[in-house]
Specification:
Length: about 180
């Protein structure tokens, strides 16, 4: 007499064996997925905390000077036309050629001289307490780097850089493009 597998008459496997196997697979996936996400998040955090650089640039009558140490970025922005000065504090997340800055503070240090309103004043006052700014970056020389901005408007900034942008950049620096 022939028995079908998975039935209550088959002596080789208990009833519901296939359901138990599926439950084990689902449980394994439910456990392994958060672990993999945690490892990826930790790698991103460690890579971002490896920054050790200074940036300097003048773009559209605004002077920028920034420093990043241990994942914390401090930037001083000065409008050369009106004299308005702001400091911006942020935490940097770095993944490949993308930089995400989580801005946590904006402080107005010096007011504009005269009646003219600074571009920096309008921009910095329009943002909330916490904001996100994203840049793509690419080295174009030993000390020069280009930042591509998409928000709040599209722009390209060329800056002078001293140091490395992330831990990955310190050990495996990006090569200059071959043009």
């Amino acid at each position: 007499m022939a028995f079908r597998r998975g039935t209550d008459r088959c002596p080789s496997r208990p009833v519901g064996y296939e359901n138990q196997a599926m439950t084990r697979k689902r449980l394994f996936l439910l456990l392994i997925f958060p672990v993999l996400v945690g490892i990826a998040g930790l790698a991103l955090l460690v890579n971002s905390m490896g920054c050790n650089y200074t940036l300097r640039s003048t773009h559209r009558d605004v002077d920028y000077y920034g420093v990043c140490r241990g994942g914390f970025v401090n930037l001083v922005e000065t409008d050369l036309t009106t004299g308005s000065t702001w400091t911006v504090g942020a935490f940097q997340f770095s993944l490949a050629d993308q930089l995400l800055f989580v801005v946590h503070s904006r402080n107005h240090i010096r007011e504009s001289s005269g009646k003219a309103t600074s571009v920096l004043d309008t921009y910095n006052r329009s943002l909330g307490a916490i904001s996100f700014v994203n840049y793509a970056w690419m080295p174009v020389g030993r000390r020069r780097v280009v930042f591509f901005q998409t928000s709040p408007y599209h722009d390209v900034l060329t800056m002078t850089r001293e140091g490395h942008i992330s831990l990955w950049d310190a050990y495996f620096p990006y090569d200059r493009p071959a043009y």
